[in-house]
Amino acid sequence: MSDKSDLLQKLKLDRANGTKRRARRWPWFIGGLAVLIAAGTAAWVSRTPGAVPVGFAVARAADEVAPAAALDASGYVVARRQATVAAKITARVTEIMIEEGQHVSGGQIMARLDDSNIHAALVQAQAQVNQSTANLTAAKVALTDEMPIFQRSQDLNRKGWVSGADLDAERARYDEADQAVKVAEQGVAVAAATLKVAERNQEDTVVRAPYDGVITVKAAQPGEVVSPLSAGGGFTRTGIGTLVDMDSLEVEVDVSESFIDRTFPGQDATVRLNAYPDWLIPATVIAIIPTADRSKATVKVRVGFKQKDPRILPEMGARVAFLAKPAGTVSAAPKGVLVPDRATSGRGDHGSVFVIKGERVEQRTVMLGAKTGHEQSVLQGLAAGETVAVGDLSRLSDGTVIRRAETN
CATH number of the domain that 338 lies in? Predict the structure, then answer.
């Protein structure tokens, strides 16, 4: 009986211990609820009705402010040295040794053409040289044999043993042998010239790069016929490929003739490629083409890069800012701070910014400097490290309550 009592006692629920465990959980539940209420209150406070969402940026110091742009113009990157490399003869392509994007050196083989007929002509020309050389040798031997006979006839004629008629006949044979040597020498020269032409034709079956550059277009394939004269039907091509000298890249822009007086050779400029809008490339004006386009009322201006970079490619769109300060002029540029251009408003030298002070903004009048890309220089009225509002400034006024929406 005692064993059964012990078992029944173990099966009873300990309600007192359960009550104690539930009592210990209440403080954690109340603490979590308080945290949620505090977070919701903070979120509600930060989104107070009427608060304007704005971005913000920190003004940073600028050692120098770039000179203002006197003129902006659009154009394209072009190569001054660009060639469609072609063969000098019409022939079938047997081998292509280039691919797009490949760098080649001057004199490097780009393609080989069928040279079977030209090689046969070369062998024939060499045989003609050998034959002419043999003819010359034979003529010289004949002249050597004829010379002592003519000299003996002269001696015998002086002694009266050979008549004058016989001497004249012997002299004629000697002159003929001498002239045969001269004719044979000319024959050797003609054969050598023919051989040189055949060798040159053989060399023309090998197409070489005229200068260092990069292949941008592969125009022919093995089996096609290339012709330097004109493109025909079927698979006739005019060139092997297009070669561009990347060191000759520059920008050509069309400047309105009404503003051409704002540019001059040697003028400093900056180039911004459409592919890299945040990259300012220093440049200079190479030349102003002395003619105008009547249909567009523009004048073409050549602008050269001061720095070479593999990211600059032909036919890229570009925008050129011609700087007002002449090249070579040395002057101290005023210092200031740089902020995003969307943080300022106004035109000319004076504008305004909204400095963030806690949850409100303070409108401040500033002196503006040059604008470079997406940045605006502020010469006076704003210190480095101050935070300014960025975005739609028309919604702001002095003292407006704001909430930060993004960081720039």
Answer: 2.40.420.20
250 pLDDT above the threshold of 90 = yes
Q: Are residues 301 and 343 in the same domain?
A: no
Radius of gyration of the chain (CA): 46
Answer yes or no: do 354 and 377 share one domain: yes
Q: Residues of 317-333 as b/e, b for ≥16 C-beta within 10 angstroms?
A: ebbbbbbeeeeeeeeeb
Q: Is residue 400 assigned to a domain?
A: yes
Asked whether the beta carbons of 219 and 84 are under 8 A apart, the reply is yes
Q: Do 121 and 198 fall within a single domain?
A: yes
Range of the domain at 357: 52-65+334-407
Bridging pattern class, strands 241-244 and 82-85? antiparallel
List, edge to edge, every strand of the sheet that includes 109-113.
Answer: 206-208, 109-113, 91-96, 225-226, 236-237
Is the whole model's pTM more than 0.70, yes or no? Answer: no
Q: Which of 216-220, 231-235, 367-371 has the lowest mean pLDDT?
A: 231-235
> Residue 50, SS3?
coil
Distance, CA of 345 to CA of 153 (rounded, Å): 118
**191 in a domain, yes or no?**
yes
Residue type, 78: V
Round to whole Å and give the CA distance between 400 and 51: 8
Is residue 265 located within the same domain as residue 313? yes
pLDDT for res 408 = 46
What's the sign of the alpha-carbon dihedral 374, 380, 383, 388? Answer: negative
Contacts of 247 (CB under 8 A, 6+ apart): 308
Number of structural domains found in the chain: 4
Nearest alpha-carbon partner for 209 in 109, 278, 131: 109
Report the alpha-carbon angle 10-14-19, nearest 5.
170
**Residue 100 contacts residue 217 (beta carbons within 8 Å):** yes
Strands 69-79 and 236-237: unpaired
